[in-house]
TrEMBL record:
A Pfam family reported for this protein in Swiss-Prot or TrEMBL: RNB
InterPro entries noted in UniProt: NA-bd_OB-fold, RNase_II/R, RNase_II_C_S1, RNR_Ribonuclease
All residue ranges annotated as the RNB domain in the record: 48-357
Protein's name in the database: Exoribonuclease R
Biological process, per Gene Ontology: mRNA catabolic process
Any one GO MF annotation of this record: RNA nuclease activity
PANTHER family reported for this sequence: DIS3-LIKE EXONUCLEASE 2 (PTHR23355:SF9), RIBONUCLEASE (PTHR23355)
Amino acid sequence: MKAIHDPHGALASGLAAIRQQYQVPEDFPREVLAAADLAARNLPGPAHEDRTDEPFVTLDPASSTDLDQAFHIEEAGNDLLLHYAIADVAWFVADGDPLDVEAWKRGETLYLPDGKAGLYPPALAEGAASLLPQGPRPAVVFTVRLGPDGEARLDAARRALIRSRAKLAYDSVTAADLPPAFARFAERVNAAEAARGAARVDPPEQEVEALGDGRYALSFRPLLASERRNAALSLAANLAIAAALQQAGTGLFRVMAGPSAKAMARLRSTAAGLGLAWPEGVDLKALERTLDQRNPAHAAFMLAVRRAGTGAGYAPWIPGVTPWHEAIAATYAHATAPLRRLADRYVIRATLAVANGQPVDPQVEDAFRRLPGVMAKAEALSGQIERAVIDLAETVMLHGREGETFKACVTDADGDSARVQLLGLPIVSRARIPGAAPGSRVDLRLAAVDSKARRLTFAPA
């Protein structure tokens, strides 16, 4: 992590400019806030079975208050049963009400280092609907059976009232805080991924973090072991839900194609330049499974792989078509973050119906047809904001260092324009380098820094 020294407040003013440029909502309309306050008083009823005696816990970043998921795990012979409680947003939000209309406008929560623009007002997202340990909360509990081979199957989906026993944090959780089978569950999921040829690319994320008192830091942050294991719970549940929906002939799926032939050729050049051994006959996924986030060359290649893909999107169920997510190597859905993603609320509603032998609400089926476009727009906006924030932080970090020379690695190139990662700093930028080859090491001179335009200008030294 690199602390950003910003005595002139360029980062704070730049974040305000980003919010204005991308029209990030500052608050919710008055009628939406009023609807949230009213909905927060919608107490669970007979539809929610009482499961408050079960040992659910949550595991998230320490500062998070919009908690989508709580869980506990038990053994059932050779199987492991994941009881996965997901915030029951649909209990509070009705089709066509002010909360629903506003959520369709937003699509997902937008995150900036100085605050977020939520999908739902705090009265719900950080209060009545969040699975905080302050009191009983309504949830949809998915029971996911995981066999010794790591294959997940949906056993049940029921509305329930749960009480979280603890709000655990990634950076401080210990094995004693978690269910005894937590690590074993993740190991089975990971083994199944490898067996089916999956390769999720999880490079260290380039992120800007608020440190307090107007200070920020820019870092490449590898995932902690607790995060990776927690992600395995969501993966197993989403795979099981996707399979159940696909079999029932309904649903909304997360889909992604693999890199094109041209992109693969670039990746091979990048790997060679970074000194990675990639024998002929070994496919990209097999190579990815050997990479280590903590190795700078591996991290640079993981970033290049992520940028080489076509990106993920959403697709409704279509007769005769198997929705496919290439990185996961399976049919996959999103159902475990309804406080932050609009689409999840509808996938959860469909899963509740299918698991209990009921027809899927026609309004849910209609939403599946409309959601791909809405979610694509929301994800594009989120990505633009994230990149703008990082670009801003990079310019503030390097302000005053014009004329210095930095060592860098070319991660990919398009003609004379190259994307480069500085070695020793968490900065990814572009530079005009004639004849740049992916994977090559270069010395670059910082020619100019423009924080208002969020632009660094590098030239070959």
